[in-house]
Amino acid sequence: MPVSNDVSSLAPPEPGRLTRPVSSELAGWKRWLPGLQMLTRYEPSWLAHDLVAGLVLTTMLVPVGIAYAVASGVPGIYGLYATIVPLLAYALFGPSRILVLGPDSSLAALILAVVLPLSGGDPMRAVALAGMMAVVSGLVCILAGLLRLGFITELLSKPIRYGYMNGIALTVLISQLPKLFGISIQSEGPLLDLWRIAEAVLHGAANWTAFAIGAGTLVVIFLLKPWQRIPGILIAVVGATLAVGFLDLGQTAGVKVLGALPQGLPAFALPWIGQADLGAVVIGGCAVALVSFADTSVLSRTYAARTRSYVDPNQEMIGLGAANLAAGFFQGFPISSSSSRTPVAETAGAKTQFTGVVGAVAVALLLVFAPDLLRNLPTSALAAVVIASAVGLFEFADLRRILRIQRWEFWLSIGCFAGVAVLGAIPGIGLAVLAAVIEFLWDGWRPHFAVLGRVDGIRGYHDITRYPDARLVPGLVIFRWDAPLFFANAELFQTRVLQAVAASHTPVRRVVVTAEPVTSVDVSSADILAELEHTLRESGIELHFAEMKDPVKDKLKRFELMQRFGPGVFHPTLGAAVDDYLADHAVDWRP
After folding, report:
1. What residue numbers bound the domain in which 111 lies?
2. Angle 549-552-555 (CA atoms, 0-180°, nearest 5)?
3. Which residue, 567, 555, 564, is CA-closest to 486?
4. Which of 55, 269, 508, 557 pairs with 451 at a CA distance of 20 to 30 A?
């Protein structure tokens, strides 16, 4: 009986994975609409799971959406608008099976940093500014996805991500403290805000009833957090709302409440803003795109691994962009994936994005038929919801590990954290990106290099600084450069080669550069190579290369260096380069 190599039968077909061939026409346009493809393969047995999970998810979507809207500087109702439409858009364009999108605490500080100073206290102006930020973010994500730039967030190293997310978490937490204490301050940046809050509390401006409600809400959320099947946020918010309504604390104790929500669904509206605001909104929208896709890509990969399905990062960018674009045009604000609501959907048994559709429809029904249901919801309880989420953004455990194993990357993370905490969210994100570029350039600017020799009992050629007893080939310097050659490190490369020649104990006849780690050259480094070859030739020394990659050779041809070097200077392996040297110069040396 023949043995089949097909392993697809070992596991049930997963949603999101093609189980039969599709025509080229289908692949041509439907590949941009993963939701439609899912619909063609939807199994009836998944429906009950998605319905239940969608209803469970709704219990979080409502309070969290309102809380993050207020934290972002827009009225609470727009948090529900930013929940309904993006969920529907992502269900059509998003590739992930169960990822939940919507307003998120990681974006609140970024949105607030733009909306607060430009809106002048006008809520409708704040909505327009936040909506345009969503449009900018959506366009950036879609364009990046079409250009296949889904890898771009990988340029932010883990310590840098920890730094800016810790900074954003602190910024979000501080921004909610005035609501928790029932006071109002003029925001001037995270650290100054903290000072103003302390002054207000010490001078007796705090509403301690509002604080007790918010603190109680926070305690309930944290106590119930270990049990994912229990909707801790819903229980805490409903309890706070009932307490305020039953005791009439809004009137008797001055506790600020949400008030009645407008009845009806979000309508299409262009978020018009003035030309003077465009620069800040574009910068903020780009920062939102970077942060939201960084979060979404990590969460998407995590759940793709759990469900044994592949998620295209470029399509993920398009799906996220489409959701943000829809939010901007339907009275919403920038959104991202949610690391708190997605696990709820998974735990409740979600099978596909139909879970999000059910949640969106349930929120819409609430707005149509029961808009007064949350009128007694205290703003201090909403602040507690945001604070609880912000606390979850902090990362300390892994930073302790990084401090132990790589101290300079730990301080890089602390620097990014301080940038966000001191300068604000958007300048801090810019600082994090700049730090990522500098970190990348530094590794290539001052890379590792080595002179190689032969070590008895070990195959190959090895760094003589690690193996001081290594035997050197008389008259031959074997030099390894562990980085691409580019403008920033080319002169250092030349210096290190000449230093290796000068340090040789025997007269040097040939230098062999083991070029396997060199993945690229540019015009500046090519000119330095030509200069190095000339300098060595003037001293009677030949410059050869071993194991150079074909794409690098192609560049040397374009830079008109191949004719200068000649075909005999390139060797397929280091061993062949050594053998050719021994034969060319009649050197009696045995490996």
Report:
1. 31-257+268-440
2. 155
3. 555
4. 557
Residues 452 and 426 placed together within one structural domain of the fold: no
pTM (2 decimals)?
0.68
Q: How far apart are the first and last CA of the chain?
A: 52
Q: Mind listing the pLDDT tens digit for each residue in 43-95?
A: 888 898 889 888 878 877 888 899 889 889 999 899 999 999 999 999 999 88
What gap in Å lies between CA 304 and CA 313, rounded to an integer? 11
CA distances to 386, 501, 535 from 494, in Å: 55, 11, 10
Among the residues of 406-522, which ranges form H helices?
407-423, 425-445, 490-502
Residue 523 neighbours by CB under 8 Å, 6+ apart: 559
Query: Of 440, 457, 482, at which residue does a domain stop?
Result: 440
Question: DSSP assignment of 414-426, as one string?
Answer: HHHHHHHHHH-HH
Return d(Cα 67, Cα 224) in angstroms, integer. Answer: 19
Segment 232-262, tens digit of pLDDT: 777 888 899 899 999 989 888 888 887 777 8
Handedness of CA 415, 417, 422, 426 (dihedral sign): positive
| Calculated CA dihedral for residues 552, 554, 557, 561, nearest 10 degrees | 10
Tell me 262's DSSP state: P
Block residue for tokens 């079409």: 146
CA-based radius of gyration for the chain: 30
Q: Which long-range contacts (CB under 8 A, 24 or more apart) does 284-287 make?
A: 284/110, 284/111, 284/113, 284/114, 284/133, 284/136, 284/426, 285/132, 285/133, 285/134, 285/135, 285/136, 285/137, 285/140, 285/334, 286/136, 286/137, 286/140, 287/110, 287/425, 287/426, 287/429, 287/430
